Amino acid sequence: MTLTLLLAWLIATSCMTGFSYLFSTILGENFKEPQLLTDLLGEIAGRKLSVWVGWVVHYLTGIMFLGMLIGLYSITGVEVSIVWGIVFGMVMGGIGILMWKVLYKVAQEDPPTNTRLFHLQLIIAHVFFGMAAIAIEKVCMPYLGSL
């Protein structure tokens, strides 16, 4: 179980991040969460931060979102499936949007990117997160069991 959760966290967060980087490249916008987090947290801290700060915060947030995904399944009692991974991913995308809005409000900064596209990208990226986390659970649990 622990190994499955670790894999789900790393792979789901990486899938989400990969989508964000691809979407950024295609649209010529910066939707790269680790970079945006580094810049935003640097503004809040009043100094330039290493890009690794954004990466660490982004992946730690991934743990929180995986916990939310597990909680949503627990609360609703629905069967673990890709379809519900998509639905819960959309919910988590909405939560992600709210979190970014709070961060920008705290930093007293405007987002440096197209806000509507960024929000759309966040929802889609979290759908990828939800699908990847569920896929890992479905694929790995039979092989890894309670590891």
Automatic annotation (TrEMBL):
Keywords, sorted A to Z: Membrane, Transmembrane, Transmembrane helix
Entry's transmembrane regions: 6-28, 49-75, 81-104, 116-136
Keyword Transmembrane in record: yes
Keyword Membrane: yes
Protein name per UniProt: Uncharacterized protein
Organism classification: Bacteria, Pseudomonadati, Bacteroidota, Flavobacteriia, Flavobacteriales
